[in-house]
From TrEMBL:
Organism: Skermanella cutis
One Pfam family this sequence matches: EFG_C
Record-linked CDD domains: EF4_II, EF4_III, LepA, lepA_C
UniProt protein name: Elongation factor 4
GO molecular function, one term: translation elongation factor activity
Domain named Tr-type G: residues: 4-186
Encoding gene per record: lepA
Top-level lineage group: Bacteria
Record field: transmembrane: none
Protein's cellular compartments: Cell membrane
Known function: Required for accurate and efficient protein synthesis under certain stress conditions. May act as a fidelity factor of the translation reaction, by catalyzing a one-codon backward translocation of tRNAs on improperly translocated ribosomes. Back-translocation proceeds from a post-translocation (POST) complex to a pre-translocation (PRE) complex, thus giving elongation factor G a second chance to translocate the tRNAs correctly. Binds to ribosomes in a GTP-dependent manner.
Main location, first listed in the record: membrane
Enzyme class: hydrolase
Residues binding GTP, per UniProt: D16, H17, G18, K19, S20, T21, N133, K134, I135, D136
Amino acid sequence: SDLKHIRNFSIIAHIDHGKSTLADRMIQMCGGLDSREMREQVLDSMDIERERGITIKAQTVRLLYTAKDGQQYQLNLMDTPGHVDFAYEVSRSLAACEGSILVVDASQGVEAQTLANVYQAIDNNHEIIPVLNKIDLPAAEPDRVKEQIEDVIGLDASDAVMISAKTGLGIPDVLEAIVQRLPPPKGDLDSPVKALLVDSWYDPYLGVVILVRVVDGQLKVGMKMRMMASGAAREIDRVGVFTPKPLLTGVLNPGEMGFITAGMKDITETKVGDTITDDKRPATQMLAGFKPSVPVVFCGLFPTDAAQFEHLRDSLGKLALNDASFHFEAETSAALGFGFRCGFLGLLHLEIIQERLEREFDLDLITTAPSVVYKIHMNDGSVLDLHNPADMPDPVRIAKIEEPWIKATIMLPDEYLGSVLQLCTDRRGEQIELTYAGSRAMMIYRLPLNEVVFDFYDRLKSISRGYASFDYQWDEYREGDLVKLSIMVNAEPVDALSTIVHRAAAEKRGRALCERLKELIPRQMFKIAVQAAIGSRVIARETISAMRKDVLAKCYGGDISRKRKLLDKQKEGKKRMRQFGQVEIPQSAFIAALKMN
Ligand code: GDP
Ligand code: MG
C-alpha cells in the first residue's frame, strides 16, 4: 500500500500498565487471529515470557484497519518490553517507528519507566498519543493521572484516549487516533534500497530470520541483498509479515515492516542496526543505526559438565543473535575450567539468559558472582578494565580503583519514603533531588552501580510493597575505597564467589556471605570451614558440621520405588553441583549467595 496509508507505532508503558493486553485487543479487532487462535498476551511467545508474564523481545505485527474515512490502513505495531533491563529493545523499536502510544495505568499513574520510555520516544521525534488504561477499575482516577501526565511529563493530555484493554472499551478510539494523529512514514520507492535491520533471531526451520523496516526501495524474493556493515551478501528467499502469524508477501515496500530470510545459518552476519541494501544497486550511505548497548553487569557461565562447552558456545551465539544487548567471550577459571565471561544490562537480564540456556538449550550451568566493570589504575600509570573480581591484581601494585555510578529515578507513594531513603543511604547513595507530584514522591539519587546490581531492585519492591518504580542511567566513574572479598571453602579459594566491595561494608558482607553459604552448601561426611577474607586476613568464618548423607536410611523396609526416587533425586542434585576440592557446592549457591541484604 502507499505511504499515506501506513502507520508505524510502538506501544510504550511502565511494566504491567497493559501494553501487551492492548496489543491483543487491537489484533483481535483487526482480525489478525480468530478467536480459537487468540490467547492472552499472544505476542509473548516464549515460554519464559508467558510464565513470568513479561515481554522480553520486542514483537511486531501488521494489522489491516478500515478507518472511519472508509480507507484501509496498514498498521505496524511493535510491542515493547517495559523492564529497565530491556531498555535496549525499546530503543530499537522506537527507531523503526514514527509514533508511540503511551499507555498509563489510570489507577497507578506515571511511573519511572513511563518517564524513561516517553523521553526516548521524544528523542526519536515521535508523535505521542497518551492512552489511559484500566478505567474499568474502581481505583482508576483518569483526571488525576491526566494532570500528572501534563505536570510530570509535560505532554498535553487533554485528548488522551480512555480505555480498558481488558474489556475492550475505547479500542476503536485508539485505532482512529493512530490513523488521524500519527504521521505516515517517509520513503522513496525509486531510490536504492535501504532497510534497517531491527532484529534477528535463529529459527530451527528457517535459519536466521531478519526483522526489517524498509526506508527506501523494495525488498523482494530473489533479490541479492547486502548488509552494509558486515559486508555479507545473500539471496533473499522469503519475504513476509507477522499478522501475528507469519504470512509470506514476497515484497516489502518503503515504510513497511516485516521479515526476510536468506538461507543463512551464520549468526554473525546479521548485525542489529545494520543497513540492508541491494547488491546490484547499493545505497551509498548507511542509516543511522542504533547506539551500541553497553553491558553493565558481568558474570562467568560455565558448563557443569565440561563436555558441554561447545554446546554452550553454540547456544550463547544463538542467544546473542536474538538479543543484541548480550555479550560473551571465552574465559578459563582454575576452579571451573572452560567457560564464558558474559555481559548483561542488569541482573534480571542475567537471570533470563541463564534460564533460557537451561530450558531451551538443555544446559546445566554454574553462574559466578555478578560484577560491574572497575577501572584499576596501576602504580605504573596503566589502567585496566576489571570484569572479573578473580583477576584483581595485587593491591600493592594498585594506585586507585574507580567504580561506575548511576543516576537513579525512583517514584513511590510518600508513605514508603523513609524506608527507601534509608535503603539508598545504606547503599552509599547521594540524594540529588526530591520532589512531589500529588502523594507520590520522585527521588533522584546517585548510587554506585555495584550496590544496585545485586538486589537493590528486589529490596526496593519489597519495602514499598511493590509500589516503588525504578529506572537508572549511566553517570560516571568515581574513585572508591574498594577491596576484594575472597571466599574459601575448606581452605580452597572459590574464585567464582569473590566480589569487590566497599571496605566499610566488607566485614558485614563477608559475615552474611558465610552465613548464607552455610545454609546453601549441603552437609557432607566431614566438617567444612567457610571463610571470608580480604587479602590474607580472615574476617568471617562459619563451620558446616559433618553428617552421614545416607538418603536411604529414611526408607524403612523394601519400598523399591521410593528408594529409586530418592536415589534419582540425589543424582539430580549431584548433577547441579560442582566439586571444590573435596566439597560440592550447589549451583544455586553462586547467585543466591549474592542476593541478600
Ligand atoms: P504489560 O506489562 O504492559 O505488557 O502489561 P500486560 O498487558 O501484561 O498487563 C498487566 C496486567 O494488567 C495483566 O494482568 C492484565 O490482565 C491487566 N490489565 C491490562 N489491561 C487491563 C484493563 O484495562 N483493566 C484491568 N482491570 N486489568 C488490565
Ligand atoms: Mg507485556
